[in-house]
Write a structure and sequence with these properties.
This is Peptidase M23. The chain is an alpha+beta fold and 405 residues long. It contains eight helices and 13 strands. The radius of gyration is 36 Å and the shape is elongated.
């Protein structure tokens, strides 16, 4: 009975020990699985945008943008699956080596234990043990023989426990190997499907690019209009900033070139401390055009410039303020539709291409408060929010300030 209790206790400690040893691996693989799940959600969302953009079956920059996004996500998915496969292969190789070592140890222990049990069986008669002790030449020898019998009994018990311990470890490793092999089969199937999807999407992207290249004149004309609209908005923003500086000179109890009250100064400092933590101005979407200069997606040797970022989102998407502040201006501009400007101390956020505005000049807004609805271009079948951030006269890269998706 005591031996069975000790076996159960050993089993408990072995399982706990093995689970602890696997914790590092479990954390790594858990992180990869979470990334894969998020990637799958992003791909599903992008697919919905793609279906919306493809309604008219015409090639457009919007369609190309969504396709490029989906391809990037699909490549990330494949990379993620490959990392999981590498982890799984490593686990399988390590487990096989451990199983081989445990099998050898188990076989050796089993042979030793069988011999010990056989010998113990022969010596189990109490009369034989007494005779063994009484046959001693003196008390010292009798004591040594008594200790020997005790040690032999203890040695046999420990060998039995070690045999059980090794068998439990071996069984757990064999179960782990079976599970790892099943995981690998699932991952290989996922990898094959993801690779097929990627190939199909790249072919579609290639077709859209070919069609767009035939529309070079239209693309160049649209680009010129866009540049003109962007310049008008920049001019308007700088005009607003200059006006704020001019009015600041007339105010009292303010600080800085732009006339900040103590409350506005504190608000700006708070804003500046939240870099990389701001919520997105749309609940869903992705950055379809980055901040600064970059190559045009179709036109060769042509570079485009963006004073902010473009966020492609779903139709009827809500636009929201990223931080508390005051609505200082609401503009209506050709090509950019409605524009909302919110002041946050010495910082300013600009939300362009809104179809409808839900706030008015002078309103105090909070973080994530709805301020409008993003405009949907029916011709291009795309919904894009143009978002900018400024600190006084300096343009900021919004990608560095928003939460990483």
């Amino acid at each position: 009975m005591e031996f069975l209790k000790s076996q159960k206790l050993i089993l408990f400690f072995i399982v706990s020990f093995l689970l602890l040893n696997c914790s590092v691996y479990a954390q790594d693989i858990s992180k990869l699985k979470k990334q894969k799940e998020q990637n799958a959600k992003d791909i599903a969302y992008t697919q919905k945008l793609l279906q919306t953009t493809q309604k008219k079956q015409e090639a457009s920059l919007g369609l190309l943008s969504v396709l490029s996004r989906k391809i990037k996500l699909q490549e990330n998915m494949i990379d993620n699956i490959q990392k999981e496969l590498d982890y799984t292969d490593s686990k399988i190789g390590k487990t096989k080596a451990e199983i081989s070592g445990l099998e050898q140890k188990y076989n050796q222990l089993q042979k030793q234990y069988e011999k010990l049990i056989l010998y113990a069986h022969r010596q189990k008669n109490s009369r034989d043990k007494l005779m063994f002790l009484f046959a001693s030449k003196d008390f010292n020898q009798a004591y040594k023989r008594y200790k020997y019998l005790q040690q032999f009994s203890e040695f046999t018990r420990k060998r039995g426990e070690e045999l059980v311990e090794t068998k439990v470890k071996l069984d757990l490793k064999l179960d782990g190997l079976k599970l790892a092999k099943k995981e690998k089969q699932v991952l290989l199937a996922l990898n094959t499907k993801a690779s097929e999807n990627l190939s199909s999407q790249k072919n579609q992207q290639s077709g859209v690019l070919s069609q767009l290249k035939k529309k070079e004149k239209t693309l160049r004309r649209n680009l010129a209009i866009q540049r003109n609209n962007d310049k008008k908005l920049e001019k308007e923003i700088r005009k607003i900033i200059a006006e704020q500086a001019r009015l600041a000179k007339k105010k009292k109890n303010v600080s800085g070139a732009y006339g900040l009250t103590p409350e506005e100064k504190a608000l700006g400092e708070n804003f500046g401390q939240n870099m990389g933590k701001f919520p997105w101005p749309t609940p869903t979407g992705f950055i379809s055009q980055n901040f600064g200069q970059h190559a045009h997606p179709v036109l060769k040797h042509v570079r485009v410039n963006n004073d902010g970022i473009d966020i492609t989102t779903k139709p009827q998407s809500i636009c929201r303020s990223i931080f508390k502040g005051e609505v200082t201006h609401i503009l209506s501009m050709p090509g950019l539709n409605m524009v909302v400007i919110i002041k946050h101390g010495d910082y300013m956020t600009v939300y362009s291409n809104l179809a409808r505005v839900m706030v008015k000049k002078g309103d105090l807004v909070s973080a994530k408060q709805e301020i409008g609805v993003v405009y949907t271009d029916e011709k291009e079948n795309q919904t894009i929010l143009k978002f900018q951030m400024w600190k006084e006269t300096t343009k900021l890269n919004p990608s560095l300030w928003l939460l990483k998706q």
